[in-house]
Structures are given as C-alpha cells and as structure tokens.
Design goal:
This protein has 81 residues and is α+β, with helices and mostly antiparallel strands. The chain has two domains: 1-33, no CATH class; 36-81, no CATH class. It contains two helices and two strands, in the order ββαα. A two-stranded antiparallel sheet has the order 1-2. It is globular, with a radius of gyration of 16 Å. The model has no long low-confidence stretch (mean pLDDT 78).
Length: 81
Amino acid sequence: MLDPVRQGTRTVPINHVTGRTGIAALLSEDVEVDERTSDVPLDTLIPQEYAVIARAVPTRRAEFATVRCCARQRPPVAACG
C-alpha cells in the first residue's frame, strides 16, 4: 500500500510493506535507487559523457551529470538474461 509522506518540503510515496520511500516505493526491492536533491558539477563527467550532451541546454547537462554521478556510485551489475 502506498501513502504520501512529507520529506522536508516535498511529499513522496511510502510503501508500508517495504518501508521504501520516493521512487523506490514504486519499484521492486531488487532495483537499486539513488536520489539527489541538487545537481553535481559538469566537471564530474568524463569526456565521452560530456560529448553526448555538449549541445544540450544547461538544465539537461546538469541533470545528465547528476544521473551519471549516481550511476558511478553503484556497483556493477551482471547483465540480465
């Protein structure tokens, strides 16, 4: 069962069975989730990553850098199948 709960200034869902909140409450427990409330600097990107978003608007570049930072903090996972 999902119900909203306040976390700071935002309302996020909470799964009362698993105790997970936010986007994690909507996903199965075997899915890893990392969340940031602010963007990371663009200089955290490796050159190949920056090349992918070089022509994007600044907000998209910041979002991309944050997602890549979160992804690098997770351990590698074996491919499915």
